[in-house]
Specification:
The complex is a heterodimer of chains A (452) and B (223). Chain A is of the alpha+beta class. Helix content of chain A is 50%, strand content 18%. In chain A, strands 1, 5, 8, 9, 10, 11, 12, 13, 15 and 16 form a 10-stranded mixed β-sheet that branches. A two-stranded antiparallel sheet of chain A has the order 2-3. In chain A, helix 2 crosses helix 10 and helix 10 crosses helix 12. The two termini of chain A are 28 Å apart. With 223 residues, chain B is α/β, with parallel strands linked by helices. Chain B contains 8 helices and 10 strands. In chain B, the strands form 2 sheets. Chain B has a 6-stranded mixed β-sheet with strand order 6-7-8-3-9-10. In chain B, helix 4 packs across helix 6 and helix 6 packs parallel to helix 7. The chains are: A alpha+beta (452), B alpha/beta (223).
């Protein structure tokens, strides 16, 4: 029998009390662990979001967004100055146009649907026609969804196009960024609809265009697009030097605000300048809220655990004042008595840690998902209205898919987390027994004699 | 040899100074069995606390086996209590979740005795005070008052102390058991050559010791 053995045995002196302390402290440690895991998982997601989308600045002519609004096109010379701004890694310039039955022989892969019909009619693009058929009057429209042409200097990037998405080349190869040849990358849906393959040709702007690749962007709208060299689109649409949008890549997310300010200053009122960090900031705000909640909860749960063991140990020490006095009277030093009580605290906390880690492993993922889903429910993004079919489509713009990836956050309880759990438990035990140790040191054997 | 020279212990109670022990001097040679009698509040427990180095006197000296314990610092006091003093309390004060054997081994553990030696000595002492092997393995709650006091005496003897201080050792026992415990202490004082100082209010017991002191209002007088 020694200090450690006595400390461990003392932890089981009162079974009801021991079980109560272990259960309460276990819940506290389990909650701490769940919050730590949630905090880490959400932190990793925020970091990955910031890493993936946080370093671009979007520039469009003032008053223009996609094909809506108006304004004067930007020019290459205006953007040449932007490329020289510090921390700008690259500038992706685009000119977008629409092909219809008058300007191409391609047939659109998009169905108009009732939504497309509604927008077309209300925007003046279509006429309603009523004809008398065999089954009575039939309403038709002359409008078909146009095909978007994207002139670009970075053919393998569709993130800045109206449909967005992630570019994946299915066949062929991308054209050179400075190409002036009449070549095109065709979206997979459009290629299928028009039986196009690599090497096929089609007509646009009365010019024969050769298909050099078929791509998939992951959504119906972008897969109905044609991507061509910027200079070719400028020439074919008779808009020399015109730029309808640009995506500026910044070397680090930390410099994005400075670059945004510099671009705004350089382009003045000619352009609307937004950056993805601002959009990302708004988008990841719910995650940051969860991270803050989980951090506060973590601190609260650890503090609660420390207070629980602290009060329990103070209560135990007060209850055993006479025994401590006797131990001192028969030759025990403060160190040995404190060691015995600390062992008792560590034993109680160790058992609680085992229970708490078990609870944490089971609860961490559901709690994280619950926090994220509640947050998403309160901050759901608005739905877009592009395309015309009745089926639901998810538009993966630069930020469009983030909310979906939020719900895919998976909290993993690894060995490092378990080690943290035990370490936290030990810190709780030591912190909790510190005050008890102080009381032990203050107890004088003579005082105990007097109270007898 | 226990030598006490003019020790005083005063406490402040509000504006009043209480003289719990007021200039006491006496000597008890080694191996002698002495008793101090006095009424409740006469300062008996305070005197015992001072002799056992559980408290420090306001003035005066206490010499045990040549060492003035009033001048010892805290570490040395712990060593003194562990090696030279044995306590026997009225309420036995055994550790409730340790067996009788473990209770007797406890002071030897604090004194740094090896496990094997302390086990053997604890068994020997418990046999000497009359406990069976079965009783040695019991916790205090499963022992009678007399048996618990025997364990307490064995514990007091564990580290071969020079001085055993007993505070009303028969106070919680019936007359017959009290007499047995008193005889046991007397016998051990002789066999272990230990000085024993018993504080009691039982004059019939005090009368059987080698020397008897009367404590009244903090002052001591020998009978």
């Amino acid at each position: 029998m020694n200090v450690v053995t006595r400390g461990i045995r003392n932890a089981f002196r009162n079974v009801v009390r021991t079980v109560s302390i272990v259960v309460i402290l276990g819940l506290s440690i389990g909650l701490s662990l769940s919050m730590l895991v949630a905090h880490q998982a959400v932190g990793q997601k925020i970091a990955s979001v910031q890493k993936s989308i946080g370093n671009t600045v979007n520039v469009s002519p003032a008053g223009l967004r996609g094909f809506d609004g108006g304004g004067n096109a930007l020019t290459a010379s205006q953007l040449a100055g932007v490329a020289k701004i510090d921390h700008v890694s690259s500038v992706n310039k685009m000119l977008m146009d629409r092909l219809d039955s008058d300007t191409t022989n391609l047939k659109t892969a998009l169905e108009i649907g009732n939504l497309g019909k509604h927008f077309a009619e209300h925007s003046g693009f279509a006429e309603r026609r009523v004809s008398l058929g065999a089954d009575g009057p039939q309403e038709t429209t002359n409008f078909t969804p146009p095909i978007t042409v994207v002139g670009t200097t970075t053919p393998a990037d569709v993130s800045g196009t109206p449909g967005g998405g992630t570019f994946s080349l299915q066949s062929g190869k991308a054209f050179d960024s400075a190409s002036s040849e009449n070549v095109a990358l065709v979206g997979s849906a459009l290629a299928t609809k028009n039986n196009l393959k690599v090497g096929s040709t089609f007509t646009a702007y009365n010019t024969t265009i050769t298909v050099v690749g078929i791509f998939d962007a992951g959504n119906s709208f972008s897969n109905n697009q044609v991507i061509m060299p910027l200079t070719v689109v400028q020439k074919l649409t008779s808009q020399p030097d015109a730029i309808s949008s640009a995506t500026i890549t910044v070397d680090s997310v930390n410099n994005i605000d400075a670059v945004t300010a510099a671009v705004k200053k350089a382009l003045g009122s000619a352009a609307d300048v937004t950056n993805s960090a601002e959009q990302a900031k708004q988008t990841i705000q719910p995650l940051q809220n969860i991270q803050a909640i989980s951090l506060y909860s973590l601190v609260g749960a650890v503090a609660a655990g420390a207070v629980i063991i602290l009060l329990a140990m103070v209560m135990i020490v007060r209850e055993r004042r006479r025994e401590i006095g006797v131990l001192k009277a028969i030759g025990a030093s403060n160190g040995k008595i404190v060691g015995q009580f600390m062992t008792e605290a560590i034993t109680l906390t160790g058992m609680s840690a085992v229970l708490g880690i078990g609870l944490g492993v089971l609860a961490a993922n559901p709690i994280t998902k619950l926090l994220v889903s509640n947050s998403n429910g309160q901050n759901a993004p608005g739905t877009g209205h592009m395309g015309g079919t009745t089926a639901v489509r998810v538009i993966d713009g630069p930020l469009g898919g983030l909310h979906h990836s939020f719900s895919n956050i998976h909290a993993v309880v690894g060995w490092s987390i378990i080690a943290y759990g035990f370490a936290a438990a030990m810190v709780i035990a030591l912190a909790g027994s510190a005050l008890a140790s102080f009381f032990i040191a203050k107890i004088r054997p003579a005082e105990v004699m007097r109270t007898e | 040899m226990l030598q006490v020279a003019d020790i005083k212990r005063t406490f402040q109670s509000g504006d009043t100074t209480v003289h719990a022990v007021d200039g006491i001097s006496f000597e008890v040679p080694s191996g002698q069995f002495a008793s101090i009698v006095g009424k409740s509040g006469s300062g008996k427990s305070t005197l015992l606390s001072l002799l056992g180095a559980l408290d420090k006197p306001s003035s005066g000296t206490i010499t045990v086996d040549g060492d003035d314990i009033t001048k010892l610092h805290d570490r040395a006091l712990i060593k003194y209590r562990c090696g030279k003093i044995g306590f026997v309390f009225q309420n036995y004060n055994l550790v409730p979740n340790l067996t009788a054997l473990e209770n007797v081994m406890l002071p030897m553990e604090f004194g740094g005795t090896s496990k094997k030696v302390r086990m053997e000595r604890a068994k020997l002492l418990l046999e000497q005070v009359g406990l069976t092997a079965d009783q040695m393995a019991r916790k205090p709650g499963k022992l009678s008052g007399g048996q618990q006091q025997r364990v307490s005496i064995a514990r007091a003897l564990a580290n071969h102390p020079k001085l055993i201080l007993a505070d009303e050792p028969t106070g919680n026992l019936d007359t017959q058991t009290g007499k047995l415990i008193f005889d046991l202490l007397h016998e051990l004082a002789r066999s272990e050559k230990t000085t024993i100082l018993v504080v009691t209010h039982d004059l019939s017991i005090a009368g059987k010791t080698d020397r008897t002191f009367q404590l009244q209002d903090g002052m001591l007088a020998e009978h």
